[in-house]
Write a structure and sequence with these properties.
Keywords: Oxidoreductase. The protein has helices at residues 19-31, 44-55, 73-81, 99-104, 106-134, 155-175, 207-220, 231-240, 243-246, and strands at residues 10-14, 35-40, 59-64, 88-91, 137-142, 180-187, 224-227. The chain has 251 residues and is an alpha/beta fold.
């Protein structure tokens, strides 16, 4: 169960090698979390992540999970919930893709959409049903400011995040009053392996700063969290900019 500050004792990460997810797990282990499940494709990286968190004092398990295999999600996540209640599910998987390549190769574009949106829809619904059955818990969904308005530079990725963001908000409304809390996190540019080599955007952040924002959001039972917070104002302005103006902006 969560403590008086809303922090979880047990955590399930969907996307067990995500840098943001692991930064969040480290932060929560330092506070309260004692049991962690890392769900992801079996790999040395997943094993290393589990070993690192065990070194921090948590009981850590791994479970095979692939966003692109929604037909297996219920079985994979069912194994986790069968072992006991989960206080927090953190959906952290996703791919950035390569905009130029994906425009030329529709199959690659579809893979981005299937991972970031279709796979996430499946995983969220399976996790939400399990959380609702146990009567408590939080589902934290890592979205992106890229989903606020499609940009020429990454509209394939941005559109997939826009769909996920809208879905997660609707799911949160559907679960309101059930004891299950849904929180959407919208980071800006995060300095990570995923963005290595890309030009850094203004108001760039780090996995550790996103983790801190997730913790604060859980304590406050927030429904939407922007990282950094200033992006809320920036994206509000960009969202309402006339299209002819927006397409000329260096964003």
């Amino acid at each position: 169960m969560k403590d008086a500050f809303g922090l979880p004792q047990s955590l399930l990460v969907l996307g067990g090698t995500s840098e943001i997810a692991l930064a969040t797990a480290r932060r929560l282990i330092a506070r309260r979390t004692r049991t962690v499940w890392l769900a992801g494709r079996p790999s040395p990286a997943l094993d290393r992540a589990a070993a690192e968190l065990r070194g921090l004092g948590a009981e850590v398990h791994t479970v095979a999970f692939d966003a692109l295999e929604p037909e297996a999600h219920e079985t994979a996540l069912g194994k986790v919930f069968a072992e006991g209640d989960i206080d927090l599910v953190l959906l952290a998987f996703g791919v950035l893709g390569d905009q130029a390549r994906d425009e030329r190769d529709p199959a690659s574009a579809v893979r981005v959409a299937q991972t970031n949106y279709t796979g996430a829809v499946s995983a969220c619904l399976v996790a939400a049903r399990a959380l609702q059955a146990q009567g408590h818990g939080s589902l934290v969904v890592l979205s992106s400011v890229a989903g606020e308005r499609a940009r020429r530079a990454n509209f394939i990725y941005g559109s997939s995040k826009a769909g996920l963001d809208a879905f997660a908000q609707g799911l949160g409304d559907a679960l309101y009053g059930t004891g299950v809390h849904v929180m959407v996190v919208r980071p800006g540019f995060v300095r990570s392996k995923m963005t290595a080599g890309l030009p850094e955007a203004p108001l760039a952040t780090t996995p550790e700063e996103v983790a801190a924002a997730v913790e604060l959001g859980l304590r406050r039972r927030s429904e939407t969290v922007w990282v950094p917070g200033a992006l809320r104002v920036v994206m509000s302005a960009l969202r309402h900019a006339p299209r002819a103006v927006f397409r000329r902006l260096p964003v």
